[in-house]
Design goal:
This protein has about 100 residues and is mainly beta. About 0% of the residues lie in helices and about 45% in strands. Strands 8-9-1-4-7-10 form a six-stranded antiparallel sheet, with no helix packed on it. The chain has a two-stranded antiparallel sheet with strand order 2-3.
């Protein structure tokens, strides 16, 4: 897992895309062979979002592998590594197991 020197604010998370995909038969397809993956690992999270004066913590945590929309987030480059910064609401789900 990469270490990034960015602290996201409020309900934002920093995600590093999963670099490769594997077919059902076990063949590894590199990212350059197709579309960008729509899943990644949470690298950092913000403190949460204020709702009605109360701080609501985020449902995701550092290390979670998540699914997100194709055009979600803003791409940033830090120390020659690509990351996505997005709001928690843009995350569709956490992959468990």
């Amino acid at each position: 897992m990469s270490k990034v020197n960015i602290r996201p604010l409020h309900d934002r998370v920093i995600i590093q895309r999963v670099e490769e995909r594997t077919t059902a038969s076990g063949i590894v397809i590199p990212e350059t062979a197709g579309e960008k993956p729509q899943r990644g690992k949470v690298i950092a999270i913000g403190s949460g979002r204020y709702e009605n004066g109360n701080l609501r913590k985020l449902d995701v945590k550092v290390g979670d592998v998540v699914l997100f929309g194709k055009y979600s987030g803003t791409e940033v480059k830090v120390n020659n590594e690509d990351f996505l910064v997005m709001r928690e609401e843009d995350i569709m789900g956490v992959i468990e197991g």
